[in-house]
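Sample 1 of the test manifest.
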Amino acid sequence: MKKIILLYVLLIGAFLVYAVQHYQTGANEEDPFHSERLRGELGENYVMVTFLSGIEYWKSCLKGFEDAAETLNVSIEYRGATRYDTREQITVLEQIIAKKPAGIAISAIDPASLAGTIDKAVDAGIPVVLFDSDAPGSRAYSFLGTDNYEAGAAAARKMGQLVGGKGKVAVITLYSQQNHEERTRGFQETIDRAYPDMQVVAVEDDKGDAMVAKDLTRSLLEKEPDLAGVFVTEAVGGAGAAEAAKELGRTEQLHVVAFDTNKDTLDRIKEGNISASIAQGTWNMGYWSLQYLFHLHHDLTIPSPAASGVVSPVPVEVDTGISIVTPENVDDYYAK
Amino acid sequence: MKKIILLYVLLIGAFLVYAVQHYQTGANEEDPFHSERLRGELGENYVMVTFLSGIEYWKSCLKGFEDAAETLNVSIEYRGATRYDTREQITVLEQIIAKKPAGIAISAIDPASLAGTIDKAVDAGIPVVLFDSDAPGSRAYSFLGTDNYEAGAAAARKMGQLVGGKGKVAVITLYSQQNHEERTRGFQETIDRAYPDMQVVAVEDDKGDAMVAKDLTRSLLEKEPDLAGVFVTEAVGGAGAAEAAKELGRTEQLHVVAFDTNKDTLDRIKEGNISASIAQGTWNMGYWSLQYLFHLHHDLTIPSPAASGVVSPVPVEVDTGISIVTPENVDDYYAK
C-alpha cells in the first residue's frame, strides 16, 4: 500500500513538472520570434577576435559581448593576436574557423589583409561582423564602430565650451593613420566653422607615446604661452600632455581633452588634471555585434541571410557613437 | 488516512511546481542581462509613428517592430498622420506623448519641424528613435535608415551587370528631394568611375507619378533608340517605365531597375518586365528601433541613458542596408 502511494505521488509530481514546463515554453512553438526562441542552444559558441589583445581598450567591447551572451544564453570566447602582427591575427582566425563557431566578431588589424580569411569563414556558413576597425573589401555582414570625424567634432564642441569659445588650441595626433586624421579634421573644421575666436595653432605627432606628448606640450606652452587647450586624438598622449601642464603649474590654464578611457586618463579626470575625454561606444560594439551574429546564426532576419544575391539581413554600417567623460560621470567609465 | 495521503500528494506537487519555476526564472535574479529580464512588463507599450500612414512602404517597418515586440513580450501601437501634413504629425505625436508610452519610433515628415516635439518626449523621459527619415536637430537617441548614396551605387552595379557593362542609361528621379538626389549621385558617380563604356544620357523628374514616368521613358526611347537601361529612384515610377517598354515591345532591350517593393513592382519583376528593384532595410528599421527603445526604457545600456552630459547609450546612426530584388528572390518580398 505505501509503495503504491509513493508511486502515485511520484507520478502526479512528474506530471505537474511536465505540465508547468510545457505551459512555460510551449505556448508559441511555431513562432520564431517568441522569446523562448531567442535563447541559444547548448554548445552555441561565439568568438571575439582582436589584436594587441591584452590592451585595456578591448575590455568594454568584451563586456558588451558578454552581456549579450548572458541575455541570449550562449557561450563566448575571447581570442586575438597578442602582438600588432597581421600574420598572427590571420592564423588565429583560421584556427577559430576550423572549430566552426556559431559566429565571429573581429576587429581587423588592417583594412586589406584580413578580407580573404573573413570570406573563408562566411563561405563556411559562419556569420562574421566587424567592430572598431573595418575591412571594407570583405563579405562580413556589418561594421560597428566610431565615426571618427564626428568624434573630433564633438571634441571641438567640448573644447569650445571649456575655453569659453576663444583662444589658441593645439592637436596632438598620429600622422598618417586614417582614423586619427579624421578626428583631427573633424576637430579643426568644427573650430573653423563654429568658433571664430578660436585658432588651431599646431597639429603635432606624438607617435602614440605619452612621453613624446609631454615634451610636445611643454614646447607648445613655451612657444604659445597663452595656449588654452590641447586635444589629443590617441589613448595615451592625454596623460602626457596633462603631466606637462601639471609640472609647469599650468593645469588651471590648459584644458586637455583626451581620447578613450584608459585608467590613467580617468584618474586624471577625477583629480582635475584632464578636463574631458572622448569615450567610444565600445560596449555597444560588443553588445550589438553578438546580437547580429545570433540573429544571423538562427536565421531570424528579413530578408534571410540565406537569400540569393545582394541582401543586408542586418544593418551594414553602425556608428556606435561617443560619450564625453567628465568629472561628473567619470566613475561610470572604470572597467567593471 | 486517505485524506492525509491526498494532502501529501498536493503538498509535494505544489513544492515541485514551485521548485521548477524557481529553477527556471530565479537563477540570476540580480543580473539585468539574464534573458528573463529582457522581457517587458504588463502594459509596456511602444508606438511607431509615420506619415502617409496608409502606404505600402511602412508595412515591412511595422513587421520588424511587431517581431521585436513578440521577442521582448511588449505591446505596440501603430499611429501616424494619414496625409502628408506636418501639422497633423505633430498633433499625433503630442497625443502620444500625453499617454506616456515606453518609447516612440518616428519617421519625421520633414527634418526641421518635428525636433521640438521630439525633444518634449525626451524631456518627459520617453525614449525616441528616428527611422527612415531623420530629424537631425532633435535629441532622439538614434537614426536608422538607408544610406541613399550607397543605394544608388548598388543600383549602378546591378545595372552594369544587366547591360553587360556598356551602353546608354537614364535616371528618372524626383528633383530637389535630398534622398533622391543622393541616389542619383551615387548611381551617376559609380557609372562614371567603374563603367567607362556606359553613359548616363538623361536625368528626368517624374514627380512621383507612374504616368509621367511612362511618358518620359517613351520619349527617352524615341530620342535614344539604343537606350539599355533606366534607373528609377522612387517607388512608383519603375512600373511606369516598364509599362512604356512593354507597350513599345522593348522589354527585352530596356532594363528597368526600380526602387522599393510595391506590389506592382514585384509583380513586374516576376513577369520579367522589371529587371530588379532596390529594397530598403525596412524590417531592420522597425526591428532594431524597438530593440533600442526597449534597452533605453529598461536602462540596460553602458553608458546608461541617464548618465550626465553627452552620452550615446545606443548606436547613433545606423545604415540599415539594401537588398536587390530579382526574379530569383522576389517571392520573399511580398508583404506577409
